[in-house]
Every structure is written in structure tokens, then in C-alpha cells.
Amino acid sequence: MQHNRYYYRIFLIISDFILLGLSCKLAYYIRFGHHHYEQFYASFFIIFSLAWVGAGLFHRVYELEHIFNLKKITSRLLLTLFTQLLFICLFIVSFKAYYFSRIFLLSAYTASMGSILIFRLIMGLLYSYYQNLSYSKRKIVLVGTGETAGSLFDFFSTQDATVFRFLGNFDAQDDKNYVVKQLDELKQFCLREKVNELYFTLPNSPGHLIDEIAHFADQHFIHFRIITHFDLLERKDVEVEFYGRVPIIRLRKEPLSYFGNRLLKRTFDMVFSLLVILTVFPILFPIIALLIKLDSRGPVFFKQKRSGWRNNQFACYKFRTMVINKEADTRQATKNDKRVTRVGRFLRKTNLDELPQFFNVLMGQMSVVGPRPHPLKLTEEYAQRIEKYLVRHFINPGVTGYAQVNGYRGATIDPSLMQKRVDYDTWYLQNWSLWLDIKIIFLTVWNMAKGEENAY
Prior knowledge:
The chain is α/β, with parallel strands linked by helices and 456 residues long. The protein folds into 3 domains: 2-132, no CATH class; 138-252, 3-Layer(aba) Sandwich (Rossmann fold), CATH 3.40.50; 259-450, no CATH class. Helices cover 52% and strands 12% of the residues. The chain contains 14 helices and 11 strands. It has helices spanning 2-32, 39-58, 70-94, 102-132, 147-157, 186-193, 207-219, 259-295, 342-350, 357-362, 376-385, 402-405, 415-431, 434-450; strands at residues 138-143, 164-170, 179-181, 197-200, 223-226, 239-243, 246-250, 301-307, 313-319, 367-369, 398-400. It has a 7-stranded mixed β-sheet. The chain has a two-stranded antiparallel sheet with strand order 8-9. It is flat, with a radius of gyration of 28 Å.
């Protein structure tokens, strides 16, 4: 949650700078009839903007908690306005800058206040709309009662209802009015209510109980948090966050569980996929389509159901690289596979067969970088054979991935090779950053240029 507040604050500060700049431009045009600043007016804009942001930080107009309260937003913006106005008056008097046009100042303040207030209201409406979507609400369940569970319940009770939806508490003791079911019904309840986050607060619980619930959570894409003694966990990858005064233990780091990081990654995905679709695709598509048609009978594109975010199915698109066959959905391509066409072998070697998947990225079904999506049969098979296999489905699958740039691509007949892929995908999930995505993209391009041995 701290990540969300940080990104929200940065976004609002940047947006204020933009709106203040546009307002000053408009005010200058109203007074002088053109947009070309004189030097001292350009200097004034910098002072005007810095004074506004400084006053805004002082009066806490950039806090996420105020986004839904119209009265609070308006009052704090007015306080910011008067504080900034006082500073500007002191500046004008101190430096005897009486040459500033009063019409310009009045227009600048009117436009600034109006545009920023309207923008805040729009932001509040958009944020409220997003949080009211069923997939964005955080449905929460507690396991355990007592002082710690009570404190956590109090914390969730004070949070925004459009963000958190507290569903109840599970324990054998019925000493709290928010206990809704017994502990042995936890799994059925989580599946029925589509719970997103599970908080475990039972003290001195045996390790096998924690492991069992953690495994269940991983299999059903539920974020599992622990509030317990630190000596119960002998893990190096845990992450601790405080909800009020309650320490919450995450069993692994998940940067993409934060809204700000997801927004950053999605924005990058949309921009990058649009660039590819508008620049690279129009050049290569006619050539590749013609070669595919000349090489073998069948369509240009190959569509296959694959496992995506939270194991949801989606139609994944590729350039067709095989002759038409009945085993396309059940049998992976192997080395010297006779089903692969001559053009298909080249496309696979250079990863160009994946190019249509940028349309999947644009539609939000995939990401530019992430764990590679597997056919449904393969996902079903390995989910039973490899522990934590489904953890890789906590995020969108990618056109390329960390496992692929480290050499783990191609057929996965050997379970140990799939285990390595899962290890790399899990590491990526725990260590995501925008810079890591960019690095993986560059490594992918390098591998495309030199050709990959495991691509067949």
C-alpha cells in the first residue's frame, strides 16, 4: 500500500506541474495575445509551480486517502492556493517585481485552481470506478482470533471500502462477532467467494498447517500473509509490511502486487506493443505471410488456447510454423520435428513466430515480459508434478521471459528442465522492475540476432 501512495503522489505532482504550465500559458495568451514567454515570466512559472507543490505537500493534497472526499479535496486545495498566494506576494514585494500583470496573475490563479480541482475530481471518479470493478477489489479473509486478529480487523475496518472487502474470520472459537465459519471450511469458502488475500494469525501453529494453507493459496492464486512468530519461518525471501501496528509477513516478494507497479508495467506494455504493431509488424507481416503461404498449405496464423493470468484461458496467436496436424494442441515441437516447415524453422529460430502476440499484449492478455504461456494440457500436467508451478500464473504471461533469455526454451519433456523454468519465472516475479523488463527485451533481441540452439 505504501507503494500505491508513493506512485500516486508522484503522479499528482507531475500532473500539477503540467496543469500549472498550461494555465500560465493560457493566462499569458489572455493578457498578451501570444504564447512566447518573456524571460521573467518564464522564471515566474518555475517559482509559481514550486510554491504550489511545496504548499500542497504541506497541506497534504497529494495523499491517496483524500481522493474520494470532495469537501476535503476542495478545502485543502484552497489552503494550498492561499499559502502559495502569500508566498508569491512576499516574492513580488521582496524583489519589487511589480511589473507582473494583474490580469495575468488573476487568469493564472483561476485557470490553475479550476483545472487542478476538475482533474482531482476526474481522478477520484476513475479511481473509484477501477476499485469497484470486481477483479480489482481485494477480498480478504482472516484465519485466527485474538488481539492480533482484532487489531488487523480494526485496520481493515478503517480502510477504503472500494479497495478492501473484508469477508470474515475463520477459527474454532466463536468469541468475535465477525467469525463467519469454522476453520475446516476455509478452502471451500475461499473458492466460493474468490478470495484474493488470506491473513493467517493463529499463534504457535505447526509448520505443516502453514505449508498446507500456503500450498492451497498458491494453487488458487490467493496471496498468503502471515502474522506470527518470526522463528516459525526459516526463509530468506520473506517480506515484512506493517498494517497499522500489525506486522504482515509475505512468503515471497511480489512487486507486481502493488497497483503502482502494475500500472507502470501495463503502460510500458501498451506503448511497446503499439510501437511494434505500428512499425515492425507492417514491414514484416507481408513478407512472412507470403513465405508461409508459398511454403505450405494452411492459414498464416496459428491460434491456440493457453493458460494466462490466474490460469484463465486465452487465445494465443502466432505465425503458423507447422503443417496442419491433429497433435498441435497436445504434442510439443521437438528437435528435427517433421511437422515444422522450412519457413517455420527460421521463424522459430529467430522468435519471429511470436510477433502476433503483441496483439495479445495490447488486449491485456499478455505482457511483453513474463512467464511464457503454455498449452492447457501442459499446464494441467505440470501443475500436478511440480510444486509452485502455478505461482507463475500470478502475473500475465509474456512474449519473452527471464527463463527464455537464460536458455530454457523449447520442448520440456524432462521435468527437471520445467522445474528450472519455474525457478526462473518465480525469481522474475519476486524481483520485477521496469529495468529488468528492458534488460530481458535487449537480451531477447540479441538472442534473435544470433539464433537460439533450443529453438526448434
